[in-house]
Amino acid sequence: MSATAEPATTGAAGKKTPPKLVFAAPRRAKPPRHLADLTPAERREAVAALGEKPFRADQLSRHYFARLVDDPAQMTDLPAAVRERLTAELLPTLLTPVRDLSCDGGTTLKTVWRAFDGALFESVLMRYPDRATMCVSSQAGCGMNCPFCATGQAGLTRNLSTAEIVEQVTAGARAMASGRIPGGPGRVSNIVFMGMGEPLANYKAVLGAIRRITDPSPRGLGISQRAVTVSTVGLVPAMEKLAAEDLSVRLAVSLHAPDDELRDELVPINNRWKVREVLDAAWAYADRTGRRVSIEYALIKDVNDQGWRADLLGRLLRGHLVHVNLIPLNPTPGSKWTASRPRDEREFVRRLEAHGVPVTVRDTRGREIDGACGQLAATAAK
């Protein structure tokens, strides 16, 4: 993603307002149109434009979203000639698996996908005793340039389409339904937009994906909005826009530092929207939706894990509808950044709890399979 600056303007008092950052992904060819890109009404229009009866769109939606089928041979309620044409036009192949790696006894599955134009990105399916969570990418690469993140250091290739995001979920849903993941046949219950990319920098496609994922079956996958989490590094205008959508998805803010001096370095977008602005937008989201905000905080040895920073974070967060998710950093090869010492992690937790702030330490799945976001895709690209 590139950031361009609109010219500074001069207000009535003669003061210059800072230039507005405009985020734009590199221009590239668009992925083929897919059923998951379209609303139910748009699907019917698309089918009618192909010379078929609009109700065929409902049949196609039932196969794709409810039965998780995209093979025309299995769509026996459609005439053969019709099914071949509709699947060719509305269910094109968008993603090709390049590499699968599993760990945790097969209950964690990480996949590198290649898109139609060669762009690479990742998704992760994690099965727990009580749920199955899909971590999906919203961009191929990322333009936020956070120095401790493998994806951020790779830069942005392009935004993903709504259907490319949804296809990651349906792939995981098929793996669960088929019994491929140990534990027997099951279903994907939770979605987290915490894979490659900054979701709110690809706002329209991400919002469309949320709709497809949460619309009742067979219009969508029928996953509860309350089981969907959207992360952001703090794009304040987009956070405010998301709050106005009246969704009940959870917002996760990747904060990583409670003070502007350090966050300017760790999360460069902080040079545009400071910690207080980001948190104010988060509290407004919580007030509007009634959903607890998750504060994501990667603990980095001798960088952001000092006791005084835990105290500062606790003072900023106490009294709000919030939960802190501490993440032991999953280091990338050759990086100077590494996870905090266990004793420093425990002290950070203790200090936050002393301020009355609920906190957990994230389960670090996938460490042995290039678990850091973007790491496996970078390996596949080489």
From TrEMBL:
SUPFAM superfamilies: Radical SAM enzymes. It is an enzyme of class 2 (transferase). It catalyses: adenosine(37) in tRNA + 2 reduced [2Fe-2S]-[ferredoxin] + 2 S-adenosyl-L-methionine = 2-methyladenosine(37) in tRNA + 5'-deoxyadenosine + L-methionine + 2 oxidized [2Fe-2S]-[ferredoxin] + S-adenosyl-L-homocysteine; adenosine(2503) in 23S rRNA + 2 reduced [2Fe-2S]-[ferredoxin] + 2 S-adenosyl-L-methionine = 2-methyladenosine(2503) in 23S rRNA + 5'-deoxyadenosine + L-methionine + 2 oxidized [2Fe-2S]-[ferredoxin] + S-adenosyl-L-homocysteine. Binds 1 [4Fe-4S] cluster. The cluster is coordinated with 3 cysteines and an exchangeable S-adenosyl-L-methionine. [4Fe-4S] cluster binds at C142, C146, C149. Residues 128-368 form the Radical SAM core domain. Residues 7-20 have a biased composition (Low complexity). Its main location: cytoplasm. The active site is at E122, C373. Keywords: 4Fe-4S, Cytoplasm, Disulfide bond, Iron, Iron-sulfur, Metal-binding, Methyltransferase, rRNA processing, S-adenosyl-L-methionine, Transferase, tRNA processing. S-adenosyl-L-methionine binds at G197, E198, S231, S254, L255, H256, N330. It comes from the Bacteria. Pfam families: Radical_SAM (PF04055), RlmN_N (PF21016). Residues 1-29 are annotated as: Disordered. Its EC number is 2.1.1.192. It is found in: Cytoplasm. Its cofactor is [4Fe-4S] cluster. Specifically methylates position 2 of adenine 2503 in 23S rRNA and position 2 of adenine 37 in tRNAs. NCBIfam families: rRNA_mod_RlmN. Belongs to the radical SAM superfamily. RlmN family. HAMAP family: RNA_methyltr_RlmN. Reaction proceeds by a ping-pong mechanism involving intermediate methylation of a conserved cysteine residue. This is Probable dual-specificity RNA methyltransferase RlmN. It comes from Actinomadura keratinilytica.
